[in-house]
Design goal:
The complex is a heterodimer of chains A (about 200) and B (about 425).
Chain A lengths: L3 H11 L6 H13 L2 H17 L1 E2 L6 E2 L5 H4 L4 E8 L2 H10 L4 E5 L17 H10 L4 E4 L5 H14 L6 E3 L15 H9 L6
Parallel strand pairs in A: 3-4, 3-5, 5-6
Antiparallel strand pairs in A: 1-2
Helix pairs in contact in A: 1-2
Chain B lengths: L1 E10 L2 E7 L3 E6 L6 H13 L18 E10 L2 E10 L5 E4 L2 E3 L10 E4 L4 H5 L2 H15 L2 H26 L2 H4 L3 H38 L6 E5 L1 H9 L3 H10 L14 H22 L10 E6 L2 E2 H4 L2 H22 L6 E5 L7 H11 L4 E6 L12 E5 L4 E2 L17
Parallel strand pairs in B: 3-13, 3-14, 8-12, 12-13
Antiparallel strand pairs in B: 1-2, 1-4, 4-5, 5-6, 6-7, 9-10, 10-11, 14-15
Helix pairs in contact in B: 3-6, 4-6, 4-9, 6-9, 6-11, 6-12, 7-9
The chains are: A alpha/beta (about 200), B alpha/beta (about 425).
Function (chain A): May play a role in DNA repair. It seems to be involved in an RecBC-independent recombinational process of DNA repair. It may act with RecF and RecO.
Keywords (chain A): DNA damage, DNA recombination, DNA repair, Metal-binding, Zinc, Zinc-finger
Organism (chain A): Klugiella xanthotipulae
Chain lengths: ~200, ~425
Amino acid sequence: MYEGIIQDLIDEFGRLPGIGPKSAQRITFHIVQSQSADVTRLAELLATVRERVRFCTQCGNVSEQELCSICRDARRDAGLICVVEEPKDVVAIERTRQFRGLYHVLGGAISPIDGVGPDDLNITQLMRRLADTEVREVILATDPNLEGEATATYLTRLLKTLEVPVSRLASGLPVGGDLEFADEITLGRAFEGRLTVS
Amino acid sequence: MRVTQLSVADYRNYRGAHLSFQPGPNLLLGRNGQGKTNIAEAIGYFATLSSHRVSGDHALIRQGEDAAVVRMRVAHEEREVLLELQINRSGSNRAQINRGASKPRDLPRYFSSILFAPEDLSIVRGDPSLRRRFMDERIVADSPRMMTVMADYDRVVKQRNTLLKSARTSGTKANQLSTLDVWDDRLVELGSEIMDARTRLIHELGPPVAAAYHHIANDDHSPRMTIIRSTETVLAGVALSEAELGEIAVGAPPDISMATDRGGDHPHTMQKFRAALRAIRPKEIERAITLVGPHRDDLFLELNNLPVKGYASHGESWSYALALRLGSADRMRAHSTTGDPVLILDDVFAELDLRRRERLLAAIRSYEQVIVTAAVAEDVPEGFTWNTIYIHGGAVRPDFSDQHSTSERTPDVE
């Protein structure tokens, strides 16, 4: 245990996701010993990031303006909406450079244990969006775990009433991997989702 | 298959110990509280990835240490494989197979054993949860994938219960419960798979268990095992009309499974599960708990058409418990491609009368390797050449063969 403000800072860093007590200590001492200009800049950024960053009113992604950069981009196909759980999922899909449509960020997945129900997610906005605009396809890209699947099932049921085609990302074998090393669940899913080639 | 070497470090009461085993009968001899059972537990852990005595792993780590390490060399015919397991106090456990990094859940592919313990009597006499555990352990041993299915199922039950509870407290039922259907889908899907796996298992275990019982009790009491499904109980209670069942059949999703050996009647199980959930929903909302599914099923054991629980004598109950294990071993042996499972008998002989001891031993002597623990040599039937290992105070003692014949009966401290 350190004294006073040092320990306070260590505790504060330790509460951040992915940072354990040792890393928190390392970061704290790095800050204490580093040039004052660097630390001031970090402190300013921390203060302004909360003020400046908002959520896109259309898709729920992080943004510094009313609409996020993807929603503002006129070249994107507004007829396709990809539904994801978190803003970081948008970044992951953007890296593929294959999807040219728009996103909808739910802000999590249905999980009663964590106190998250459909009302806590951006679902009403999604429904409004689908009612207002011409959408050719909704792609559900929630995580392939229990909560993500449950969220996808919930949305599928909800979207049935709108007569919009809905698809779900495939799950199966990783590219570049060996079949023999795949676990049974993944291999089983790959069999279920197999494609007809001729 | 057989265990050739076992070494443990910072495991239970052992700082470090190394044991060599022989094919055939092995005997771990030592007074109570010295660490015989801990060795049996360590060997059994590789087959089931859990202790037969405690549910968590923390008790396996020597007090004051961060991790326990167990290494076991297993041989099948001329092939040897080295299995290593590190049980960590914080963080997940780690495993190595032939010095290559691996996952703990891969270990059971290389080693199978059947462990008999005094606790087995409670499978026959105790709560339904113990009988479910007995079945699920065998299912996972057959197909490790089912471990994930069971864990997911438990999580769905938890999510669903939380939802039901929050719906009850907040009162906004209609709104909150809109997601209940979503969890029902997963519950039915995963639950039916577990139910069918259990049905298939018990169907296969019936004949070997009956044969084993006959062997141990030397009497034909026609033992019978039936799974009591909570779905059936619920449906019998509400006496669902045929028309209603028909309607459900139409609404059920098609079976997209590629597996043909799923056993049971999968679509049928799912239909019934759905129907039972629908029938019991008002009660579930009232009690805020999931009332139907494999977590509420039981395995009903009978002798001479009477339930074992409450009717069978102590001796009969013991014979049944032994028959469940021995039957499991015989079934495993029949299916195995890597030789017999290793039989581990932890302090079992002390619980049995002389005749049962001898019959049990006669039944298992054909197995490739048997590992027995006992407090005194007198508990172990004669007429066997045992490879005896002496355990004392968390260490392996060099052979002091004259001592085991002197009866060292000490008060039970375990």
